[in-house]
Amino acid sequence: MLEMVKEAEKELLNYPERNMGYYLKRFIKIITGYKQEPLDKINWPNGLLAKSLIDYYMQNRNSEEAAIIIKCLRKYYDRWIKRGCKINYLDDMCSGMALIDLHQITGDEKYKKAAETMVQYLFHHEMDPAGSLPYRPEQKNDFIFADGIGMVCPFLCKYGSTYGDINAINLATVQIQNFIDGGMDGKTGLPYHGYQFENGVKYGIIGWGRAVGWLMIGMSESLAYMDETMPGYDIVRQSYRRMVDKVEAYQLENGLYSWQLAAREGPVDTSATAMILYAIARSLETKDLIGIHKSRMQRGREALWNMVKEGKLYDCLAECQGFSMYPQVYDAYPWSLGPALSLFAMDNEWGKNNK
Fold it and tell me: What's the order of all strands across the beta sheet hosting 202-203?
């Protein structure tokens, strides 16, 4: 597992790696009038890596690696803070989870202020008529993505629980409830990739593995920071439990999940598998799921562990380009490494036997 930690540290500070040719082409396009997306230094792949490092740290505080992890996380967040805490997308909230932990560990108030910048960004973000946060408001389509639930809601709930801000938790609860109402397939119980509130149309394929993973992470992590007396808690918990039951029916004999859950003869996707299994393991830890789910999670975890090579987890589906745009390219990416490391780090006893 230490190889994975070192790889996560390396990728956290360097992903995405770009050469001088990339920056030259970008500069030429800008000066010739072509609009370019901003260089996002606190993106969602790095957010998954940062969280995985914090998860490992929490289980190994007294290890030699612990101090190195904190140093690495400080460097990652400090360079973003130094540049003014620029936020470009909802995706950037994925880095908020580890940021809150870093404040709690170090006591350095600049990390709390940076987290406050994130939550204020969400409070002032454009919303659709139901109160959901469109994934790319500048596109003027009001599309709501399952990805956003996993990237945004855990941060909001952790922020609200840590700093006593019920408005943050309420905003997260609205996002989840709206997706349950608008983004699920009635027949299978699996999510579409997303939906649009006003026209009532659901988009993408049913049961795309990583969309399932994002939604399950969003629900499981949010529940971990919600109090059972809070409005919407019971609805979210019951919906999550039903979804887990539906999802587990698609687990392959080898313990993994395919890139699209129903495509049982298609390629497996280690990112979807790691996300789904992490969510289940997290919910077993918080008692939001009962022990009957444990054996399936453990079988999948062993399968993933046996696929790790030199700190990387291959057979990971490439980055999605939009609804129903899932390039069938498989390699090692941060979005398989991060959730897998979080999963492996969670069980300290298991982790000691799989260093």
Answer: 143-145, 194-196, 202-203
Q: Rounded distance, CA 68 to CA 70, Å?
A: 6
Q: What is the pLDDT of residues 257-274, one digit of tens each?
A: 999 999 999 999 999 999
User: DSSP character for 171?
Assistant: H
Cα angle: 308, vertex 311, 263; to 5 degrees: 35
Task: Give the torsion sign (CA, 300, 306, 307, 310).
Answer: positive
pLDDT in tens, 137-173: 999 999 999 999 999 999 999 999 999 999 999 999 9
142 half-sphere exposure, CB direction, 13 A CA radius: 14
Euclidean distance between CA atoms 256 and 269, whole angstroms? 8
> What are 117's two structure tokens?
């910048």
Tell me which residue has tokens 């970008």. 26
Of 295, 333, 294, residue with least CA distance to 313: 333
Distance CA 289, CA 243 (A): 11
User: How far is residue 172's CA from residue 155's CA, in Å, rounded to a whole number?
Assistant: 9
Q: What's the N-to-C CA distance of the chain in angstroms? A: 5
The residue assigned the tokens 């399952």 is: 146
Q: Which residues of the chain have pLDDT under 70?
A: 18-30, 32-40, 350
Q: 122 and 156 in contact (C-beta within 8 Å)?
A: yes
Can you tell me whether residue 289 is helix, strand or coil? coil
Q: Which domains does the chain possess?
A: 2-352 (1.50.10.10)
